[in-house]
Design goal:
Blueprint lengths: L2 E7 L8 E7 L8 H14 L22 E2 L2 E2 L20 E5 L8 E3 L2 E2 L2 H10 L19 H11 L6 H5 L6 H12 L8 H14 L10 H5 L7 H15 L4
Parallel strand pairs: 1-5
Antiparallel strand pairs: 1-2, 3-4, 3-5, 6-7
Family: Belongs to the succinate dehydrogenase/fumarate reductase iron-sulfur protein family.
Cofactor: [3Fe-4S] cluster; [2Fe-2S] cluster
InterPro entries: 2Fe-2S_ferredoxin-like_sf, 2Fe-2S_ferredoxin-type, 2Fe2S_fd_BS, 4Fe4S_Fe-S-bd, 4Fe4S_Fe_S_CS, Beta-grasp_dom_sf, Helical_ferredxn, SDH/FRD_Iron-Sulfur
Length: about 250
Amino acid sequence: MNITLRVWRQKGRDDEGRMVTYKLTDVSPDMSFLEMLDVLNEKLTLENEDPVAFDHDCREGICGACGVVIDGEAHGPERTTTCQLHMRSFKDGDTITVEPWRATAFPVVKDLVVDRGAFDRIIQAGGFISAPTGTAPDAHANPIPKPDADRAFDAATCIGCGACVAACPNASSMLFTAAKVTHLGMLPQGQPERASRVVKMVNQQDEEDFGGCTNIGECAAVCPKGIPLDTISQLNRDLLGSLSKGIG
């Protein structure tokens, strides 16, 4: 495949940034999108040009480190992580536009790399449980109904990639926060902090300058782990219940 890339290049947070066009030849359709970027960077390095900075780690769709907007879609045309997107999803001769996540709360560090520390601070605000010291309890000590366990597991699959924020017209992180709140809220271990957790995490979300949720649903549509939109409804129920009790 021969492809043309339009890649966002930005030296740092204070740089205005610009789109730069590159041409690649003999791209294998079996390459992952990140492998294709590796090939581009090898070419740029040989030409004594600065390689394109992009986030990556496991490259197995597990860690959530990678993530770019490809042709206007978070993670690209397939519902998967960028590292698991393959070039066979494109055609010979295609022009592909590659940009970083666009959100005030995700400032660009360099090129396609953004600072997602806002997610870490939301989790630090309340995404934890009380852990008494001593011998670990038996696995069956706290029976959990299977529907609750399944819902907690589904929410726990969130990898914090930020695609939900990138896809949302308001740059809201509500699906991410709701996944963390729902995961712990469905388990008996998460009950002691349940009421305070949701208030603290939503307050921190607001402090990070994410946009408000208007239930458009683009977040769930692009989530590579399929976090359902109704987790936001559960967060809202927990939040209203906590506020009605004067918590927060």
